[in-house]
C-alpha cells in the first residue's frame, strides 16, 4: 500500500489518475451513470473529476455553477439526505435547473473534507432513473472514497490555498501601496560624514513581518518584480532630499534587473548617485545576461554592489563574475569581529581583494565601538549599522 508520503511525491498527472480511478470505481460499484468530484470556490462549485458510463454527459471538467443552484450545497448543509432515490420527490431538487439539465433522478453525495475540517467540495454520483436499491452502506462506501480522494488532494490543495492567500496579501500591498521607505545612513569612517543611504522597504500590512518575507512571498507568486519596482520607485524620490554628495543604495533581485523594468524606472534619475545592491541570497543563472542588462545603466554612472559578502559561497561568485563597484561585508561577518580571529581574517581577505580590484568596502551591521575600531584598523572605508544610525524615514 502506498504511504501518504509517497502519494505526496507523485506528480499531479498521476494523482489525477488515482482520483479518476476512485471516482469511476465508485460509479461502477453503485451502478450509477455519472460520478464526479467538485471543488467549492468563491461561491461556485467547479467540476474537477468526472466519470461516466458513456460519453453522453452534459458536464465537463472545469464547468462551474453557483453553489446555490447545485445539489452540492444542499448536501453540505444537510438540506437533503445523502441518498436521494428520486429527485422528483423533493420539490427543492425538482425545481433546480441542474435536475433537468443533467437528467438527475437518483443521487448520492457526500462532502469531501480536508484534515483541518474545511470542505473541499463534494463527491457525488447520479443515475438518470430513480433507484430503490441505494442504502446506508452505499453512503458509507462513498464516504470512504471521499476520504481517499481527500488524502490524495490534501497537499496540493493546501499548497494552492496558501499560494492564493499569499497572492491576495501581496496584491493588496501593491494596490494600496502598503509600504514605506526607511533610509539607513552609510558613514565614511575616515571623515565621520554620511557617504550615502541604503533604502529599505518597511511594510504596514498584516501580518507584520520583515521585508525579506514579503519579498520572498511576492516572488513565490510571480509578483516579486512588481513589488521591487514599487519599492525602488518610492525610494528614488528620496534622493532629492539627501545631500548632493551622498549616494542612494537600492536593493534589487536579478529577475527584476532581467525584466527590463529598471531603465524606464530610473529614467531621469541621477544614475551617478545610485547604487544597485544584489543580495548573496538571490540566485543568478546567467551572469552574461545580467551584465548585458546592466551595461547601459553602469556606463551611465550607476554603480553595482554585492550585498551579504562573506555569508556564503554565492557572494564570491557574484563578485568574480560581475566586477562590482562596492562589496558589502555581511553582518554575520562583522558581529563579534573583535573577538573572532577567523572573522577578521576573512574580512581582511575581502578587503585586500577589493583594494586589488578597485572596489570599495562597506561593512554592514556594526553595533558597537569595538567592532568599529577593528574595521577601521583593517582599512574598511565605510560602514552602516545601529551604532551609526538606524533606518528611518528621511524626515
Automatic annotation (TrEMBL):
Highest taxon of source: Bacteria
Pfam families referenced in this protein's UniProt entry, alphabetically: EAL, GAF
SMART domains listed in its UniProt record: EAL (SM00052), GAF (SM00065)
Domain EAL stretches: 163-395
InterPro entries assigned: Cyclic-di-GMP_PDE-like, EAL_dom, EAL_sf, GAF, GAF-like_dom_sf
Stated name of the protein: EAL domain-containing protein
Native organism: Massilia niabensis
